[in-house]
Specification:
The complex is a heterotrimer of chains A (347), B (303) and C (500). Chain A has 347 residues and is mostly helical. Chain A has 13 helices and no strands. In chain A, helix 3 runs antiparallel to helix 10. Classes of the chains: A mainly alpha (347), B mainly alpha (303), C alpha/beta (500).
């Protein structure tokens, strides 16, 4: 009996997965249109501004610049999600990473270029270490990562907030923040005249690496199968605890890297709350959920969300519709998909 | 120093801090007992808090605010009920997206209905009135905290007992427990699992609505964006620590309420508020770790 | 007019005609056996009678009138009760809570616990089913749990009691007790439908037999007038198959050794000082009623459960404290009991399922990189060799039938070509063709000089395949026999803890 295993058979499943996503987007836009009507705003104007605000002229580069941290945070969420683990502590890892990067870039006695490299490394290291802490909680005390990662964000943000208000405070600024980072230790512009910085390359490399590892390596295989059936993975010889630690370290490192990129590439100082204000980690988690943790799909979803958010900002500027509506839109899409059982149907 | 440290204000703040967490944790307890993992407590509370302010403002009376909080909480939880109880979608994904939806929706409505962003407060609006329990109110130290609180606080304590008795002594409580433990067996004997899950979720939504009411109208009358500040997640932790048993869950909530008040007290003593704000979360984590380590000693195989 | 009739029942599932115009007639107070191989349609027929399924065609007549059963509630309301093979009990609740669930005696808004306990005790006494109403189900032995299931049905005034493979989890002695209970229930007017594939039990206790084969009624027999051979012929269409001839083999070097294994869970010793050896070229069978430590022993041998004391050696290598990967690397593979939840990933493709365990080494991976084409070829090869009925290598295995999924699991584990194979319930819920195939493969492993540890609840399977038979009871090995010296009666005695 010959068994089919050609290209067409392999394409059928991802294409079938896109249909519910498309219908979820339709529902999401529909509900947001209704909400807009309810508060007396015009849906057609809203969507027009949203889309133009995302891709027209210089807005396109805004979208690209926003996509960098968003894709990063999405990858940080997607890696554990692939294995069935939820990391809700990305905000804390992001903040600690950015803060650490700022400290190294400001105070490390070293030449400029090296300071930059060390700052990026410090961001990754601190983010990874903090995530490893949560992993240890799960491995040794059975504390669910879902809870421990979330709870740990508060002390993390609190610590950074304290540091930036007391020992590291730059008294010349109004907001609690560190001193400005010297030009030589910053991430330079990638495309002159646009907000896109070299962080784009860093995140791009990370994205390619994650997608490659997930699809083409044994490590990725084990990750994926664990996400599908943890008992099966264990039975087949996968070392679960080591894997948990590994994905959390990777996740935290990427989150910390994003924080470092934000500090060194666009803000040039660490300001309390500035890294978490854009809510990249929540959008990133939503994008990863949309794709079920699958890296390429997560990246695509992240880019879509970046466009949505940039458009949202523009929409708010031009027609004064609160941009927070885009968050509503994103949530509705995921909710709809989850209800239809398209995301991880309950076993 | 220690005696003055724990003064009457401390206990009062502790009780006030416990109440929203307790109400949400009771909602989570019922969900857990019927077999649903409800992590949308945070979002439902936030919706209730906003609805309380909105109802009180547009309806003009406190009663309107209460009604709005309960209704909004129940309606919002209807999404969870449909997605989780009816359609059996993934609890965690639905919960997270509902929390984010609540944050986005309340922020959006704050700007479009009230025209402000950040915080809306109205000093002319009446909050929940405090009642006085004679005898209890005159006790030293804890008197005002226990004897001079609003009706919702007392209701939350009463609910702990009511829910405990309901679960263990009534037929419907028995059926609910059976559905949560072994749905196949319960359905085989004729229990309608879907109806129970649905109702429990809606009731939980109403309870979370009341929790939100306590937040926005309980002492000060204001709503700020994301004012739940993770209390819903602490409620989830309380349910876990208390193993979904009402009395133990209440004890866990007391622990967190006390640590919350402790944090505020330490702030009063001059410690930086960024660190003291973390007190309840660190205490929660420590409790979970300790409980987990103790369980490891008695339990069987490690994964 | 018969007491209970199922008339012209047709039930279709995608790709399968489970019941093909089946007619069943049962008299009042009789013990009626419904027999057939796995997949013959008897479970479907009984689930229709209990309201779990509705027939596509046909109807049911009970006590002279037509009844429509849309759910088990309807069945219970009409007086039809069922004891399932997998018990549906609330572990953390007490016996009386389980019995009165949803029919609780009340006092106002509350449950009348005292009255409930009294009613349960009375019911138990009247029907000879001793049980403690206050006991927690989690602490009950399997035989007692079955009594509880019967009590549940009787509490709801069941006049027809369907027993689905009731003896699968009982020792031979407990089976005797069950038969006594069945006969006394029948004498008191209760009608019993016994669903089973076990000949000797049917001969011992039933009055009449309906045999199903491939979804149709093959024969209707009166027990007193028939023979086991006639029943088998009706079930399979052939005569009794003789035992597969086995070459006697001189066992080789010890491949798997356990020395003084102790495993503790929840403060109890679930594996209590177990020592055993499996040599190359021999099949060692472990007989025992489920729940006596066999699963925990296997998990300890595989590295899935921590070992309190003792040693596990695979091909002479000490793997006692190693993880699963270390055990597998040392040379053991494992056909797990729960094929759907443990031994496979339902939503993953056949390629992925067959690659698990091989995904770190050539040919499926080189230096950490997967080789997709090699993976697909590997899957295709195994599918063809084991004649697995599947549409493509990318089809998720959750869609496969029980027999085919078992073949996938078996194929993968055998592909390891490990020195030791642990097979746990390898043919449970599998159709006859697949059973024969899997038994053949196990014997081939034996021919190759590998050692096999076979754990099975089917004594017939162990007696057919094993060279040596061990009996486990309460976590200990209580007896060891060479095949020639073992018979069902003696094994049954030790399985029940007797003869000490």
């Amino acid at each position: 009996m010959t068994v089919a295993s050609g290209v067409r058979a392999r394409l059928r499943r991802p294409i079938a997965a896109l249909v519910p996503v498309a219908s979820a987007l339709v529902v999401g836009f529909g509900v947001c249109g209704l909400i807009a009507l309810w508060v007396g705003l015009s849906p057609s104007v809203m969507f027009d501004q949203l889309i133009r605000g995302a891709v027209e002229g210089p807005q396109f580069f805004e979208t690209v610049a926003r996509a960098v941290p968003l894709v990063g945070m999405t990858l940080a969420a997607a890696i554990p999600l692939r294995a069935g683990i939820v990391n809700l502590g990305a905000d804390g890892q992001l903040a600690l990473g950015g803060c650490a990067a700022a400290i190294v870039a400001l105070y490390l006695p070293a030449p400029d270029g090296m300071r930059l490299a060390m700052a990026l490394g410090a961001g990754m290291f601190v983010g990874a270490a903090y995530a490893a802490l949560a992993a240890a909680g799960e491995i040794y005390a059975g504390v669910p990562l879902l809870l421990s990662t979330w709870l740990l964000t508060y002390p993390a943000k609190g610590l950074c907030g304290y540091l930036v208000r007391t020992p590291l405070r730059d008294p010349t600024t109004a907001w609690p923040s560190t001193a400005r980072i010297a030009v030589g230790a910053r991430l330079g512009h990638l495309l002159p005249g646009t907000p896109v910085n070299q962080g784009f390359l860093l995140i791009g490399v990370v994205a390619i690496a994650v997608i490659f590892i997930d699809r083409r390596t044994s490590v990725g295989f084990e990750l994926r199968l664990r996400g599908l059936n943890e008992r099966f993975a264990r039975y087949g010889g996968v070392a679960l605890h080591r894997q948990t630690l590994g994905v959390m370290v990777a996740s935290g490192a990427i989150a910390g890297l994003v924080g470092a990129i934000m500090v060194l590439g666009s803000q040039f100082r660490y300001t309390d709350g500035a890294l978490t204000a854009p809510q990249y980690s929540w959008s990133g988690t939503l994008a990863a959920l949309l794709a079920g943790g699958e890296p390429l799909g997560s990246v695509i979803a992240a880019v879509l969300f970046a466009a949505l958010q940039t458009g949202g900002f523009a929409m708010e500027r031009s027609v004064e519709i609160p941009r927070v509506l885009t968050m509503v839109l994103q949530s509705i899409v995921i909710l709809f998909l989850a209800m239809r059982g398209a995301i991880w149907k309950r076993s | 120093m220690t005696f003055a440290f724990f003064n009457a204000t401390f206990f009062d703040q502790a009780v006030l801090g416990i109440t929203p967490i307790l109400l949400a944790a009771l909602a989570g307890t019922l969900s857990e007992r019927v077999g649903l993992f409800n992590i949308a407590l945070e979002g439902q509370m936030l919706v209730g808090a906003f609805a309380a302010i909105a109802g009180s403002h547009f309806g003009g009376t406190l009663q309107a605010g209460v009604l709005a909080a309960i209704t909004a909480g129940a309606l919002f939880s209807g999404l969870l009920a449909v997605g989780s109880a009816l359609l059996r979608g993934n609890d965690i994904v639905i919960g997270i997206s509902l929390n984010l939806l609540a944050a986005g929706l309340t922020s959006f409505l704050l700007r479009t209905l009230f025209g402000v962003s950040g915080t809306y407060s109205d000093s002319a609006m009446s909050g929940l009135p405090r009642l006085t329990v004679p005898g209890v109110a005159s006790l030293p130290l804890v008197g005002p905290a226990l004897g001079h609180q609003n009706a919702l606080v007392y209701l939350s304590w009463g609910l702990v007992a009511i829910i405990a008795v309901f679960l263990t002594r009534t037929p419907w409580g028995l059926r609910l427990r059976g559905i949560g433990e072994q749905p196949a067996a319960a359905v085989a004997l004729g229990a309608n699992a879907t109806v129970y899950r649905f109702l429990v979720t809606l009731i939980g939504g109403a309870l979370c609505g009341l929790a939100g009411l306590q937040l926005s109208l309980g002492s000060l009358t204001l709503f700020s964006e994301n004012m739940t500040a993770g209390r819903g997640w602490i409620a989830v932790a309380a349910v876990m620590l208390g193993r979904a048993r009402p009395l133990y869950v209440a004890a866990a909530c007391v622990l967190f309420g006390l640590s919350d008040a402790l944090g505020l007290r330490l702030q009063g003593e001059g410690l930086p508020n960024q660190l003291t704000d973390s007190a309840p979360y660190i205490v929660t984590l420590a409790a979970l770790v300790i409980a987990g380590l103790r369980q490891r000693r008695f339990a069987g195989p490690v994964s | 007019m018969a007491y209970l009739e199922m008339i012209d029942i047709v039930k279709r599932y995608p790709g399968v005609l489970a019941n093909d115009h089946v007619e069943l007639t049962v008299e009042r107070g009789e013990i009626h056996a419904v027999m057939g191989e796995n997949g013959a349609g008897k479970s479907t027929l009984m689930s229709i009678l209990y309201g779990l399924q509705t027939p596509d065609e046909g109807y049911i007549r009970f006590k002279g009138s037509t009844v429509v059963l849309k759910s088990p509630l309807d069945a219970i309301a009409h007086g039809i009760g069922m004891v399932h093979q997998a018990f549906k009990l609330f572990e953390s609740l007490t016996v009386w809570e389980n019995v009165v669930y949803r029919r609780e005696p009340r006092r106002g808004l509350f449950i009348d616990g005292a009255r409930a306990r009294a009613q349960v005790a009375e019911l138990a006494r009247r029907h000879g089913l001793p049980i403690d109403p206050r006991a927690r189900v989690a602490n009950l032995a399997v035989g007692v749990r079955q009594r509880l299931e019967i009590l549940k049905a009787l509490y709801r005034d069941a006049q027809v009691l369907i027993l689905d493979e009731p003896t699968a989890v009982l020792t031979p002695a407990e089976v005797g007790t069950l038969f006594t209970v069945m006969k006394s229930l029948a004498a008191a007017g209760c009608t019993i439908l016994l669903v089973t594939h076990k000949l000797n039990e049917v001969m011992a206790v039933s009055d009449r037999i309906t045999v199903l084969r491939n979804g149709r009624v093959a024969e209707r027999l009166v027990t007193a007038d028939t023979t086991p051979d006639a029943i088998v012929r009706a079930m399979t269409g052939q005569h009794v198959t003789l035992q597969r001839p086995k070459q006697p083999r001189e066992p080789g070097a010890p491949k798997l050794e356990a020395r003084g294994l102790i495993v503790e869970q929840h403060g109890r010793r679930v594996v209590d000082d177990v020592s055993l050896t499996v040599c190359g070229g021999e099949i060692v069978g472990i007989a025992g009623v489920a729940g006596n430590g066999q699963s925990e022993l296997i998990e300890a041998l595989m590295g899935l459960t921590p070992i309190e004391r003792g040693m596990v050696l695979i091909e002479g290598k000490d793997v006692t404290h190693g993880a699963v990967a270390a055990h597998r690397a040392a040379g053991v593979s494992y056909i797990a009991e729960d094929r759907a939840r443990t031994a496979s990933a339902a939503t993953a493709s056949a390629t992925d399922n067959l690659a698990m365990g091989f995904h770190r080494a050539p040919p499926l991976a080189r230096r950490g990189l997967l080789q997709p084409r090699a993976m697909r070829a590997w899957a295709r090869g195994l599918i063809e060799r084991f004649d697995i009925k599947i549409a493509s290598t990318d089809t998720p295995v959750g869609t496969l039938s029980g027999g085919n999924l078992q073949k996938v699991v078996t194929a993968r584990e055998l592909a390891h070509d490990a020195a030791v194979l642990i097979a746990e319930q390898p043919t449970r819920g599998v159709d006859v063709g697949a059973i024969a195939f899997i038994h053949g493969e196990l014997l081939k492993e034996r021919e190759r000089g590998h050692g096999i540890l076979l754990v099975s609840a089917e004594l017939s399977e162990i007696l057919a395949l094993a060279d040596r038979i061990l009996v486990m009871y309460e976590g200990r090995i209580v007896a060891e026999f060479a095949r020639a010296a073992a018979d069902e009666a003696t094994l049954g005695l030790y399985m029940a803890g007797g003869s000490r």
